[in-house]
Each structure stands twice: as structure tokens, then as C-alpha cells.
UniProtKB/TrEMBL annotation:
GO biological process, one term: cilium assembly
Keywords tagged on the record: Cell projection, Cilium, Coiled coil, Cytoplasm, Cytoskeleton, Flagellum
Signal peptide as annotated in the record: none
Location(s) in or outside the cell: Cytoplasm, Cytoskeleton, Cilium axoneme; Cytoplasm, Cytoskeleton, Flagellum axoneme
Source organism per UniProt: Alosa alosa
Protein name: Tektin
Primary location class: cytoplasm
Superkingdom of origin organism: Eukaryota
Length: 415
């Protein structure tokens, strides 16, 4: 048997009962409350609508103002970027132009350096050839002194040009480094201008805006720079490029004066050496002509002395006949008998004749000996003169033929 819960029974009984009835004043009060609540909600809604409208208008004005300000700032930023782009581009063109000019100067230095090799080679060959001189002509003369000076000048010029070439290469490297940073800065400015140009044309209704793009953080990124740092960065690049350009211009000016001065020094020394060589050739020719003149005289004297010797021999031979006759007469007269063996005038004359003839023959013999000695001395002098003439001929061949022909093609250029 099922037993009902008393509480449930009570509740069911209440639900079955008819709803309570309100009094008229309660009804009126309820209507007034509902109307008052509705009026309050309507008034509050109206105020909210007015406030919303005013807020929307304020937001619209603020939004428009912010967009206008952003556009102006973007335009100013684009203007600043274009200004620095012009400055960077101008400096880049100056650096590129100056680098090309410096490369041209470098090629001039290289050609000048290469042109020193042949003159130095010729100078060394001339010094080596002149060491082949023989005898008294192997002298440390003005030509050798000038050749040594020429060697020192060319070696000094070569060292100076080599050092200048190294400085030029280093300056070209620095110019290209400055050019690299200018180009890198320009590339960044170009990209920034492109981005800001795109930003400046964007509007709220622009179809290119990606509605899916998220909102970036409002704070500055850790890798951003301030406007002052941004300007300082480009200014540093420009100042560095200008400094390198100024150094490059100064170096080119130095190269110009250096090339002119070195060419002048080498040319003057080349002319001085050539002049000394010419003077030495003339001096050697004069010495050779003098030796040849003396040789001619010695040869003439040799021929004269040989004739003298022959004459002395003939004269001596001519005296032997009269001496023999006188001696024969004395011998024959010594055979006279007794008192006939008289020392008469004839005997005295014969004795005197024999003595005179003997003395003459002795004098002639002594003269013959002296003539033979002189002849040998003249022969030695002839050999010495001929040897010296050959020495001069050899020296002339070295200076006038070998050295002159070696030096003749050398031309000192002003690069």
C-alpha cells in the first residue's frame, strides 16, 4: 500500500487553489511601477544613445585626427628619407667617381713602376760592361759615378713608387668600404621609403588591408633606434665617405706631383749620365788620337834610327880600309934599314892617321851601340803605344758602342 508524503500533498493543494486577487490600489501601483521603470529605462537608453553618438563622433574625430597626424608624420618621414637618400646618393656618386680616378692614378703608378725596370737593367748592364775595361782605363771616372747615381735614383724611385702603390691600394679599399656602407644605407632607405609610401596611401576602405593581420605591440621594439640615432647613422656614413674621398683626393694630388718629380729626377740623371758618357768618349778619342800621333812619330823615328844605324855601319866599314892602309904603311916602313928607319913627318902623319882612324871607329862603334839601344827603346815605346791604343779602342767600344746602344732606346716618360 502506497503512503503519500504530507508535504507533497500540501503543495498540490496550493497549486489547485485559485490565484490571489489584488486590490485596485495594488493594481494601480503595479502599473505605475511598470510605467516608471519603462520610463527610466527609456530615458537611460536615450542618454546612452546620446552618449554613444557623442562617443562615436569623438572617436571618429580622434581617429581622423590620428590618421591625419600619422599621414603627416609619414609624409615628413618620407621627406626625411628622400633627403638622406639624396645626400647618400650624392656622396656615393662622389666616392665612386673619386675611386675611379684613384684607380686611374694607380694604373699610372703601376706603369711608372714598370718603366723603371728597363732603365735599371740597362744601368746595371753598363756598369757590368765597364768593369771589362783593362789596364789604366779601368778607372772610377765620372761616367761610373753618374751610373752609380743613376742606379741609386732609379732604386729610390722604385721604392717610393712601390710604397705609393701600396698606399693607393689601401685607399681604394677604404673608398670601397665607404661605398659599401653608403649602398647598404641607401638600400635600407629605399626599403623604408617603399614601406612608408605604401603606408601613406592606405585608408580604412583600402582593399589591400589584410583583415587577418594581428595587432602589433604598441611599445618600441628592442632593435629600433631613435630618430637622432637614425640621422646620426647616415651622417656618420656620409662623414666617413667624405673623409675617405678627401684623403683620396690628397693622395691623387701626391701621386701627380710624385710622378712628375720622379720622372724629372730620372730624366735629369739620365741626361747627366749620357753627357758624362759623351764627354768620356771624346776624352778617350782625344787620348787615342794623341797616342796614335806619338806612335806615328815613334815609327818615323824608328825608321830614321834604322837609317842612322845603317849609315853608322857603312861609315865604320868605310874607315876600316883607310885604317888598314895606314897600318900597312906603318908596317912596311918599319922594315926600312938602319938609319933610314927615321921618324920623319911621314911616319908621324901615319901614326896620327892610325890613331885618328882608330878613335873615329871607336866613336862610331859607341854611336852604333847607342843607336841600337835607342832603337830597342823606340821599339818598346811602339809596343807600349800600340797596347795603349788597343786599350783605348776597347774602352771606346764599351762606352761608345755597347753602353751608348744600350742606353739609346731608353726614354723617361711622365705618366
Amino acid at each position: 500500500m502506497i503512503t503519500a508524503n504530507p508535504i507533497s500533498v500540501v503543495r498540490m493543494s496550493r497549486l489547485i487553489e485559485p490565484p490571489p486577487k489584488f486590490l485596485p490600489h495594488e493594481w494601480k501601483h503595479a502599473n505605475n511601477v511598470h510605467c516608471g521603470n519603462a520610463e527610466s529605462e527609456r530615458a537611460r537608453s536615450e542618454r546612452l544613445t546620446v552618449e554613444s553618438q557623442r562617443l562615436m563622433e569623438k572617436c571618429d574625430r580622434a581617429t581622423k585626427h590620428m590618421q591625419d597626424q600619422a599621414s603627416k608624420r609619414l609624409e615628413q618621414r618620407i621627406h626625411d628619407i628622400k633627403f638622406w637618400k639624396l645626400e647618400l646618393d650624392k656622396k656615393l656618386n662622389e666616392v665612386v667617381s673619386e675611386t675611379e680616378n684613384l684607380i686611374t692614378s694607380k694604373s699610372r703608378v703601376q706603369r711608372a713602376l714598370e718603366s723603371c725596370f728597363e732603365p735599371l737593367k740597362v744601368t746595371m748592364q753598363c756598369l757590368a760592361e765597364r768593369e771589362k775595361r783593362v789596364g789604366i782605363d779601368l778607372v772610377h771616372d765620372e761616367v761610373e759615378q753618374e751610373l752609380m747615381k743613376e742606379k741609386e735614383v732609379i732604386e729610390g724611385v722604385t721604392t717610393l713608387l712601390q710604397r705609393t702603390l701600396e698606399q693607393t691600394n689601401e685607399q681604394i679599399r677604404l673608398n670601397r668600404s665607404a661605398k659599401y656602407y653608403l649602398e647598404k644605407d641607401l638600400q635600407g632607405k629605399f626599403q623604408a621609403e617603399k614601406i612608408d609610401d605604401l603606408c601613406s596611401i592606405l585608408t580604412s576602405t583600402n582593399q589591400k588591408i589584410d583583415s587577418r593581420a594581428g595587432v602589433l605591440e604598441t611599445g618600441p621594439a628592442s632593435n629600433t633606434v631613435t630618430p637622432d640615432e637614425w640621422e646620426a647613422f647616415s651622417d656618420i656614413n656620409i662623414c666617413k665617405a667624405e673623409r675617405e674621398r678627401t684623403n683620396s683626393v690628397s693622395l691623387r694630388s701626391l701621386v701627380d706631383s710624385l710622378l712628375q718629380q720622379t720622372a724629372t729626377d730620372m730624366s735629369l740623371q739620365h741626361e747627366a749620365t749620357g753627357a758624362a758618357l759623351g764627354i768620356n768618349v771624346q776624352r778617350t778619342k782625344s787620348a787615342k788620337a794623341l797616342l796614335e800621333d806619338h806612335l806615328s812619330k815613334v815609327l818615323a823615328e824608328l825608321a830614321s834610327q834604322e837609317r842612322n844605324l845603317e849609315a853608322l855601319r857603312v861609315n865604320m866599314a868605310d874607315k876600316e880600309g883607310p885604317l888598314k892602309v895606314a897600318q900597312a904603311r906603318l908596317t912596311a916602313r918599319s922594315l926600312r934599314p938602319d938609319v933610314e928607319l927615321c921618324h920623319d913627318s911621314a911616319q908621324s902623319q901615319l901614326l896620327t892617321e892610325v890613331q885618328e882612324l882608330t878613335s873615329q871607329i871607336n866613336s862610331l862603334q859607341e854611336a852604333l851601340w847607342e843607336a841600337e839601344m835607342e832603337l830597342r827603346a823606340l821599339a818598346r815605346s811602339q809596343l807600349a803605344l800600340e797596347e795603349q791604343i788597343q786599350v783605348k779602342v776597347h774602352s771606346l767600344y764599351i762606352d761608345e758602342v755597347i753602353c751608348t746602344q744600350l742606353r739609346q732606346p731608353i726614354v723617361i716618360h711622365n705618366f
